[in-house]
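FORM 7B - TANDEM STRUCTURE REPORT

SECTION 1: FIRST PROTEIN
SEQUENCE AND TOKENS:
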Amino acid sequence: MRITIVGAGIAGLATAVSLHAAGFEDVTVFEADSRIRSLGLGLNILPNAVRELAELGLLEELQQRAVRTRELAMYNPHGDLVWREDRGLVAGYRWPQLSISRSPLVEVLAAEVRRRLGAGAVVTGTRLTGLRVEPGTTCGVFTGRDGSTRTVETDVLIGADGVHSAVRAALYPEEGPPPTNGVTMYRGTAWGDPFLTGSSMAVLGDDRRRLVLYPIDRDEAAGKVLINWVAAFPEGEDDRRRPSSDGAAEMRTTVLRQFGDWAPPGLDLTCLLDDTRDIHRYPMIDRDPLPRWTFGTVTLVGDAAHAMYPAGSNGATQAVVDARVLAWHLAGHPDAGDALRAYENERRPQMTELQKANRSMGPERVITLAHERAPRGFDDVRDVFSEEELAEISRGYAQTGKFDQDWVNSRPSLTVHRRHEPDMRRETWSAQ
């Protein structure tokens, strides 16, 4: 089976590795950029996706370049603790939660694709510019940076090309650009002293703004951690004084104007920003849920299928799970179209609910509620919430995203095992 993947980000590379692990050898990944590189900074991989990476043999290498997240702690701007919960191994999962820079994750996945499928399995500098889907034929037209074109006939084409997906645009030409909720995110990383447990994710917020901080790397010799930070607030909140350029100094001033009087636990925000060399600014965008991902032998994975707001650590996580579920179904169905529909039937309803949950800021909704109920802060969170109410918000979101402990630890593996049946004189596949 010839399989073509459009996009060499986390979703596309994870799909290529998963397909090879499921027995597919003719897999090619096309990337529009001239080289594989990662845009963005830190991210979290939840245990349901870490399990998949472990079963692909990548966990040991990734752990050397990541921090095992120990806890999630949420605060109001005054530093009052609203909710905390254990994460990863500490919470009883069989696999950790990993906080990592996007760059090493992409590097590890790309190296594994080339190791398994060969150096030619990733074609860079080639953009999808046309797609033809007809009964019995799927063709992608790719244009190189020099203007040359190449038509690729394939048995399966997978759109893994992100929130601005060319494959999705070909399937839904009237959709237009991704919508924004009016929030702008400022992001950066800087080395600093460990805070809280040293492996904590801290989220502070009110009803409009969020400040997220967590370590993504360690320098054991220096006793420092690389802190990933995200500051998000509504665009237009301070239009007259918004930065007129992407200069780091001007953006630091903007962030401090919004968050300078906040009290992140164990951190000096001003020092953290001063130590941040590069600051990046993005609008917060997502995609509306789709009624359909699969057209014949074309389907979507990752952000191309279900881009969502960055709440709850589910972007990269769900892309990895998509990859494994898709490979599992392709290995288990003799007809590629049936396999893609089975993959969509399993994943799309769940991702639709998760997209909707993230538009309400997922588990961070407790911060908004805390501000609405006690805008001046509180001495005891039990005066604002019952413990059961907070726990239910967290538990419900985990179940929506299928990363609750019971499910992750006990569900059947998505690894495809090859078995030989001499009477059939061929190899067949079983998913266990």
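SECTION 2: SECOND PROTEIN
SEQUENCE AND TOKENS:
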Amino acid sequence: MPLQNVIGIDHAVVMVKDLDAAAVNWKRLGFTISPRGTHSAKMGSGNYTIMLDPDYIELLGVLTDTEHNAPARAFLAKREGIERIAFTAVNSADGAEEIRARGYEPIGPTDFERPVTMPDGSLSAAKFTTFQWPVAEAPGGLRIFACQHKTRETVWIPELMKHANGAQRLKQVLVVSTEPAKDAAHLGRMIDRDVRAEADGAIAVPSGSDRADFVFLTRDQLGKRYPEVAFAGLPERGSAGMVIATSDLAAAEKAVGNAGFRSAGAVCVPPATANGTLLVFVGA
């Protein structure tokens, strides 16, 4: 039975070495970037968000070394890119108990918040309660956690949801693997979802509800999907990128400019140009 308190992908966490430079870079690709947020001293991190509907992308950087961000720092020591994926939690406390019942000892729930500057200049706060699956349980090298939003109005701000590249929502999270079937089955067990084979042999795992799918595939399969893209910097096993639905593919092509190009009917931005993250824009 699928998890009742975990309902699909909420956001993708892209770890970056220079947070402010990454924000400038993604803005150059046609995304509207939120004001910079700073997390608690325990977390030691800061972020910029790229708000979509119903999900989003988070650019996350380490500001101060803490015990909490040790896994993120270990990831950054190797590369930039998608380090973990958050699911939407209806109730984090109940969700943590659900995964405990399935044999996964949860980390948390943990409450935290960050200040938010609203469009009118007033200061508010975004408040969350999160829990994590065990760090060692990382299918395809990708960590997962769940996030309960307590103040959605300070996160999904309409002014931040309009992008020059027409980005609307996440459609797929791409994960390269030397054993896609094994890693997909691992994730399927963790979130209690069935997997399905795609035409080219890649394995998809629905994340729940109407949210984006995970797709596990080999580097060779990824290369055949997007033959003109250079995949320098991607690992043999780990996060590769995101397929993003856009309302206007021509607008996406114009917005990314020389940073991207057409490949297999999509507009692609190679990992080397987007902080270790392949971006694939497709029609909504």
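SECTION 3: OBSERVATIONS ON SECOND PROTEIN
The mean pLDDT is 95.
The helical segments are 19-28, 70-76, 92-101, 180-191, 219-225, 249-256.

SECTION 4: SIGNATURE
Preparer initials: ____
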